[in-house]
Amino acid sequence: MNLDVTTLMIASAFVSLVSGTLLVVAWLHYRESQAALWWAGANVALAAAIVLVALGSVVAGDAIYFMGMTLLCVSSAFTWAGARAFQRHRIMPVHMLAGPALWLAVLGLSLAFSDTRMLVPINATITLGYYASAAHGIYFARDEFLRARRPLSVLIAIHAVTLMLAVPASLSGALTGPPPPFSWFGIIHFESMVFTVGTAIFLVAIMNERAQRRFATAALTDPLTGLLNRRGFLQRAERVLDRARRNSTVVAVIVFDLDGFKQVNDSFGHATGDRVLEIYAEVTRKVLRPADVVGRLGGEEFAALLPGFDPAAALAMGERVRKAFALAAVDVDGRPVNATLSGGVASATNPDDIHQMLMAADRGLYLAKDRGRNRIEHFEAGADGGRKSKVVRIA
Fold this sequence. Notes:
Layout: H1 5-29, H2 34-59, H3 62-86, H4 93-112, H5 119-139, H6 149-163, H7 166-171, H8 183-219, H9 230-247, E1 250-258, H10 261-268, H11 270-287, E2 293-298, E3 301-307, H12 311-328, E4 341-349, H13 354-370, E5 376-381, E6 387-392
C-alpha cells in the first residue's frame, strides 16, 4: 500500500517544528543545556527543508528543491553540534560547516555540468556522516550514566540509515529532478516524525535526569571546597566499607585538622581563611587517588577514607598531604600565612562502622595536637590497656 506522501510531509514538517519549539521551552527551564538549542535548530531546519522539498516537487522548482536539500545538511550538522554539546565537548565551527559547504560545492558543479544524478547520494552521505558521528558520540559517552542516552543514540542511527533509502531510487534514475511521491519517501517522512518526537522526548529526559543529579550532588557537596560535606562523606564511606567487608580488605581513615585556623581568620581575615580551606581541597585532589573518599566534616576538620591502605601506608599518605599543604599554604594571596595541618590515622580489616573509625582517628589527631601539631599520628590501644602511638615525620 502506497503512503500518502504529501500528507506525511506536511505532518513531518509540523511535528519537527513543534519538537523544536518544545526543546526551546525545555532549554528555558534547563539553561545549562546548550544541546537543546542545537537540537531545536536542527528540528526547525528539518521542518523548513521538508517544506521546501515538497514545494520543489509540486511546482517543479529546482532552486526551491535544492534549497531544501541544503537545509537537510544544515539540520544534520546542527544535530551533530547538539551531540557535541550533550557530551560537553567543544563545537568546532569548521567541522559543522564542512558538510553544508561540501554539498554546495558539489551542487554548483552538478548544475554547471547539468548532471544531478549523484546529488541525492552525496547529500545522504553527508547527512549520514553527521548523524553517525552524533549517534556514536552519545552512545559511547561513558563519563556519566544516563538511562535515556542509548535510546537517543539508537534513534539517531536509525534515522541515518532510513535516509539512505533515497539512494537506490536516485541511482536508478528516478530522482534526476525533483522527486515524485514514491512510497519510499513516505517511509522516510514517517520515520522522521518518530525521530523528531523521540529525540525530543529522550533529550528532555536526559536534561531532567542531569538536573536531578545536580541537585542531589549539591546536597552532598561542600560549596566552598567542592569536597563532600559530612553527610556526603558518611554516605560514600559506608558504601566503601560495605565493599571492604564483603572482600575482607583493609581500609584506613585519616582525620585532618588545620592548625590554628581561628588565628588565621583573626590575623588575615575570613577571605584568606576560606582560601586556605580551598588550598587544602586542591592539595588532596592532587595527592590522593580517585578511589579515595574525601570530605569536609565541619569547620576546618576533614577526613579521607583510603581503601586498601594499612596503617603504615595511611601514615605515609597522610604525611604526603601534610607536606604538600604546608608548602602550598606558605603564601596565600601574597600573605605569609604559613598554615599547617595535623592528622590522625585509623585502619581496620572488616570495619564495622565509619563512626568508630573516625573516633579512633580522632584520638590520633588529639595526640598530634598534644605533641606539637603539624604531624600525623596513629593511635592504638596497647595490650595492657595503655596507649601507644606511631608518628611519621619525613624530612
